[in-house]
Specification:
Length: about 80
């Protein structure tokens, strides 16, 4: 599943719906029920959620998805 997350991140960076992570602003909180920008699954109130501020938008992701996003960003750099 983690390999799939890296592939999804890569696809979304290429498509422009995600961006390579650098030193952006990230806030953690409980899940808000919003869909994850990486895996599309809802982030429930039982999950932790990262809110990631990008160049033009703010997205919400699962912690595991964020780590895949961060890892793929570092591999692509």
């Amino acid at each position: 599943m983690v390999t799939d997350l890296f592939a999804r991140v890569r696809e979304r960076i290429i498509a422009g719906t995600l961006w390579p992570l650098t030193d952006g602003q990230v806030l953690g909180s409980y899940g808000t029920g919003q869909p994850c920008a990486v895996c599309d699954e809802r982030i429930t109130d039982g999950d932790s959620e990262y809110e990631v501020t990008g160049p033009a938008i703010v997205v919400r992701v699962h912690v595991t998805c964020y780590h895949a996003w961060r890892g793929e960003s570092q591999r692509s750099a």
